[in-house]
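Morning run. Coffee first, then this:
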Amino acid sequence: MSVGGVVRALNIAVSEALQPAFSGAIELDNSKFTPPTKAKWAAVTFKLAGAPALTLGYGGDDRGSGFVQVDLRYPRGNGFDDTTADVDSLRAAFPIGKTFVDSGQAVRVMECRPTYFLEDQWYRACVQLFWDAVIPR
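And here it is:
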């Protein structure tokens, strides 16, 4: 159980939630990926905010927290319907309090917050999934 377990659990959950709408077009942290130039695609970034001690001593636990940022990019000029449907689908997959597990490491969703803006030739929906986890030392 570790921060790696948190990352894997969230990456798997996000990848599954983005299927089939973003099939083959998902960039995970530090992975090889060539984004399409004229089709929608997603980028997933993991951020660890910190892991202060929860219990003392050898074999204690830390309280990990942070967020996963899911950037959904759409070619500009294609309307808003596709974007809102994908964001709604992603938010439905991550209700507050839902727990995901990988190799015994549990991680809980604390908040799911979307924002929208223009970026170069893309319309971008940014969904931040805030999480917390008890991480054994």
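Strands lie at 26-28, 41-50, 61-75, 99-102, 105-119, 122-136. Good start to the day.
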